[in-house]
Amino acid sequence: MIHDIFMPALSSTMTEGKIVSWVKSPGDKVAKGETVVVVESDKADMDVESFFDGYLAAIIVNAGEEAPVGAAIALVAETQEEIKEAQAKAAAAQGNSGATVSETPSAPEPAPEPVLAAAGGVSSAPSQSNGRLVASPRAKKLAKELGIDIKSLQGSGPFGRITGEDVERAAGKVSPPEPAPISKPAPSQVPVAIPTPSAQPVVPAVAAPAGAASGEVVGFNTLQKAVVQNMVASMQAPQFRVGYTITTDALDELYKKVKSKGVTMTALLAKAVAVTLQKHPVVNASYTDKGIQYHSSINIAVAVAMPGGGLITPVLQQADQTDLYSLSRQWKDLVERARLKQLQPEEYSSGTFTISNLGMFGVDRFDAILPVGQGSILAIGASRPQVVATAEGLLGVKRQMCVNITCDHRVIYGADAAAFLQDLAKLIETNPQSLTL
């Protein structure tokens, strides 16, 4: 029997995907549950596994090409005798499209025996999780091509994952990285790569793609296409905005005390918003055709610019129930994996409320566009010294920041947004220490 491998829907907003690389070649034997291809969705690169045992007979969509969700991208034959039939079926299905179907050689060459290679800076400790090799498809393919025993390598990627660069380094094709102090992984089931500590995640400025000439039109990448679609869809919702000025002296003092413990300002703000949302469930709700969806958890999504263009919103799950220090560690890990395009769909698509912070760039105030499927987004500006009148009627200097909340008026009304901002300001101005409890 011949089976199709379809372009999967890796997120609720995904309409098409791009083939990053084929892990298997035509003619290779595949097992059920084995990774066959790496697909780029609108947010991440994901391994796609085969649902069948057999042979990869024909590749319909080659690496670098795109296909709509649900379209056949390859064919798997259960027996070698069915490979030619599958190739003919693939060619007929493509019709007059002019695309080339990758076919299997008549007699696939056996894979070379792996050879143990030693390289400076590469540990011989295996990078595994519960006996399962943790390696990217590209790393596995390179190891096979270069004759590297991948089980002997120590992964440098998130969760100890072996990357293509690790394999190339073992083969002597790239120089070993400069050693960096890394915390010892916890002796749990999965080894965790700890990102280099920093005061707070800094969003890189997005430059023009390399090689883009002045005046040239550069096509959208997959992530940028998703952003365009979401923003257009977002404008269908009736939106309004409410601004508020918050004094941050107490919050700034708290940040100075906990910064050395790895706490980021992003985590502080996310925690403050999440705690305040406990009192205002409607601001954490969203619109559906059947009515208002009140979410059972408070998941704070935070907008992050991606290298090469576009943005992604990693989600801090149940931020109101998570302690500040754990929240900071989670945020650092999410940002690291987001920029490596290694987030799982639930890690970027399950937000119930979004924060967009351009204050780190010195922006005073701005308006954010409502994310699809959410009821609110909070735009946070920079905290700056301001001359203000004190309660005693004198002039003084206080640090203040402007925040603007954008809301879906089908769910949230002006009074709801104003009450939320008032309570958020009260928490930040008078009792930010409670965020550490």
TrEMBL record:
Gene Ontology biological process terms, A to Z: pyruvate decarboxylation to acetyl-CoA
EC number(s) per entry: 2.3.1.-
Cofactor(s) needed by this chain: (R)-lipoate
Gene3D superfamilies assigned: 2.40.50.100, Chloramphenicol acetyltransferase-like domain (3.30.559.10), E3-binding domain (4.10.320.10)
Domain Peripheral subunit-binding (PSBD): 134-171
Matches recorded under InterPro entries: 2-oxoA_DH_lipoyl-BS (IPR003016), 2-oxoacid_DH_actylTfrase (IPR001078), Biotin_lipoyl (IPR000089), CAT-like_dom_sf (IPR023213), E2/Pdx1 (IPR045257), E3-bd_dom_sf (IPR036625), PSBD (IPR004167), Single_hybrid_motif (IPR011053)
Keyword set includes Acyltransferase: yes
Any one GO molecular-function label of the UniProt entry: dihydrolipoyllysine-residue acetyltransferase activity
Name of this protein: Dihydrolipoamide acetyltransferase component of pyruvate dehydrogenase complex
Organism of origin: Gloeothece verrucosa (strain PCC 7822)
